[in-house]
Amino acid sequence: MIKAITLTILSSIILFISGCSQPQRNGSDQRTKSYAYRTPQPQKQTQYPPQVTQQQDNTAVTSQSLPPQTKLPLNSPAPARNQMVGIIKGTLGTPYKWGGNSPQDGFDCSGLMSYIHKNAGLKIPRTTALQRDNSRTIDYNQLQPGDMLFFKINRKTNHVGMYIGDRKFIHAPSSGKTVTVASMDSSYWYKRFVKFGTYIQ
Question: Active site residue: 85, 109, 160, 194, which one?
């Protein structure tokens, strides 16, 4: 008799537990699946070896300096490179103008690159994004005067300048400014760097 009662109780408990583990089918089940939204990860930016330099605000970009033996060598530039560097240095001081393509009208950053390449006999795309995407990507140890540095300022704004040696580049910065020399080691540009590119073979 006791065994029968015990079996009956156990059977009831098993049925109860089984019923609790099944989802309700009467539409009153409020449980919903949770999907975590994953923000697309931005394309990882390339970095070039840092070098400690004192900025105007007296703040070093990084505590790790580029060893002297790995400092970028200034390879003997091809005639096209010499020509391009000479031309772009001649534009220093030209006012920035959005859509500008000449020293007379002014330059924006990609217009300056188009002008320099055109005068060296090379045709390149007009916009910064296309100049970046269509240029041949090169490593830091391949960088030579006449090559380009590409930056991403924000989601909608790209920027480009031309390397002239000694970790410096020339570019047309922004409205109200003029074509000028900037340092690769500036904390502002270092953080926004995307890639080195070139149209010179």
Answer: 109
